[in-house]
Amino acid sequence: MNDFMSVGLHRLWKDRLVSKLNPFPGMKHLDVAGGTGDVAFRVLERIKSVGHRAMQGTLTENEEDTHIYVCDINPNMLNVGKKRAAERGYSEEHCLSWIQGDAEALSFEDGSMDGYTIAFGIRNVTHIEKALSEAYRVLKRGGRFLCLELSHVDVPVFKEIYDVYSFSVIPTIGELVAGDRQSYQYLVESIRRFPNQEKFAQMIQEAGFQRVEYENLVGGVVAIHSGLKL
């Protein structure tokens, strides 16, 4: 469904998210609401690429210390991720862990992560402020927070076209492809209720993050927000 609705662009958006994260060998990274593994696999592959370029194919001690944690409240999504990991040859990877958990009450220790990502997940969190507070808590000093989320289009003509697509086309695609119009109608409505880019940036700042910024993609269809714990 992601491919249908975004015309495959969601893959490029996730690539951009991981590029902004700038993963490095030895990092401890937490991907929340990432049960399918889309972001985690990208982070791991980027780290391996960096390590292999540096050491011409041999693992460094730092790379061996790398650990990616995938946290999702939905066990079914985690099972999908585990299956996909096995298909990619990651089933025996000691550096990839799958954990069922709530973004509002993470089980990780204070200051334990170098990076935190959440892609298309925070919009569905009941209390966004709690999720942001937890992200801040688990990050180390210098750690980076990154959020990829459907957002608000700010280009006038494109906004009108996007509104028609959102309220007419997306629910129809959901009905035809997934047999579930109601869930995709909810998706569109939840996007409209989500804070706009400036408001969400303010919420991230209020959680304690500094150097908060955002990048609009496709005119604001999605936005990547980032912040540092300093």
Strand and helix order: HHEHHEHEEHEHHHEE
Binned strand content: 15-25%
Task: Tally the structural domains.
Answer: 2
Query: Numbering strands along the chain, what is their spatial order in the largest sheet?
Result: 3-2-1-4-5-7-6
Family: Belongs to the class I-like SAM-binding methyltransferase superfamily. MenG/UbiE family.
Membrane topology: Peripheral membrane protein
EC number: 2.1.1.201
Subcellular location: Mitochondrion inner membrane
Task: Please explain how this structure is put together.
By secondary structure, this protein is an alpha/beta fold. It folds into two domains: 1-151 and 195-229, Rossmann fold (3-Layer(aba) Sandwich); 154-193. Helix content is 48%, strand content 22%. It is built from nine helices and seven strands, in the order ααβααβαββαβαααββ. The protein has helices at 2-6, 9-21, 38-55, 61-64, 75-87, 128-138, 156-178, 181-193, 197-206; strands spanning 28-32, 67-72, 96-100, 113-119, 139-150, 210-217, 222-228. Strands 3-2-1-4-5-7-6 form a seven-stranded mixed beta sheet, with helices on both faces. β4, α6 and β5 form a beta-alpha-beta unit. It is globular, with a radius of gyration of 18 Å. The protein starts with a helix and ends with a strand. The model has no long low-confidence stretch (mean pLDDT 87). Belongs to the class I-like SAM-binding methyltransferase superfamily. MenG/UbiE family. Its EC number is 2.1.1.201. It catalyses: a 2-methoxy-6-(all-trans-polyprenyl)benzene-1,4-diol + S-adenosyl-L-methionine = a 5-methoxy-2-methyl-3-(all-trans-polyprenyl)benzene-1,4-diol + S-adenosyl-L-homocysteine + H(+). Keywords: Membrane, Methyltransferase, Mitochondrion, Mitochondrion inner membrane, S-adenosyl-L-methionine, Transferase, Ubiquinone biosynthesis. It comes from Sorghum bicolor.
